[in-house]
Amino acid sequence: MIMQPSIKIFDTTLRDGEQAPGFGMNTQEKLRIAAQLELLGVDVIEAGFPICSLGDFEAVSAVAEQTQNAVVAGLARTRDSDIESAGKAVKGAKKSRIHTFIATSDIHMEHKLRMSREEVIKEAVRGVTHAKSWCEDVEFSAEDATRSDESFLIEVFQAAVEAGATVINVPDTVGYAVPWEFGTLIGKIKQNLPNHVTISVHCHNDLGLAVANSLMAVQNGATQVECTINGVGERAGNAALEEIAMAIYTRQSEFSSHTNLNHKEIFPASQLLSQITGQSVQLNKAVVGGNAFAHEAGIHQHGVINNPLTYEIMTPESVGKNGNNIVLGKHSGRKALDHRLRELGFDFTKDELNKVYEGFIQLADNKKVIEDSDLIHISTNGVTELGDEFVQRTMQQFLNK
Ligand code: KIV
Ligand code: ZN
Question: Which listed CATH number (3.90.660.10, 3.30.1330.30, 2.40.160.40, 3.20.20.70) goes with 8-277?
Fold first, then answer.
């Protein structure tokens, strides 16, 4: 059997994720998320940007001490103080990494760094060499890589590898790339670097392409993907971990690779992040949104009740989501209503069901979602014209549940 290459999941929820307004986390909160990320089985936890604040330094150190399996990374610019701070913060980890970066696009070099190309190469080498004195595992990122001159970018990466970088990360910092262009870039970078170097990608979602770009990179030789739970992150966010993981898993034959994630911890991780940050996930968010596995339309409900594969390409249970996904509303049919009523303990004849259905549709015209309590009410009160015996029977069935 041919071993499929494993795609390393580098989670940056605690770093890039928390840089988004409303997502700041304190040490205790970061520790809870980090513990969940370990259950999820991510390969790398980027715990923060230690030079940013004492609080973040402490949080990264605490995550480093707590984490058992994942590599714990701390972010640093190439400056000495950043690297020292990151080196100290991740020191207590069983497996530690310094992730250092400098921008390589003309616009960033001219207007932000005020450095020439030669100076940027020198600084990248200096930063990696310094990081290497703190930590064996050093990742180097070229910020704004996708708007950088391609041959200069490759030159910087080669210099960083020579200085000791073991992971080369290609960030689409401003979410500008389109998938085919990004895939080609990753292929070229791979060709120009030694085989032992891990090629990583870090995509932002400004055009809604972060996941597509990341997957295209995987198809072209990237073996580490940087992403966040619920796709949180700067501006429109980062590539969503859950979408990348489930795309690779659900379409295995297209990828011939796998991640080491425990998919059943995806939904709990999403819920925990929302709970801690107080930021809920949009209902139609892929994989973890409230409606991701919900069915209201009658035709869909009919299909899913008979065989979930009719309208579900993955099961909610596979990502750790349990419970009823048939949502009753005005688009639902008798089949779904009967199904739910049976789950609630009712066993109606066809005529009785028709009556209950009439009451249900009347209510559904005025209420967006019909709850179980509504169904019980309609079933036990709304059909009195069927006679006392029917009401008694349905009440009894309900009480016996
Ligand atoms: O988006 C970006 O370029 C980053 C780097 C620091 C990797 O977050
Ligand atoms: Zn980023």
Answer: 3.20.20.70
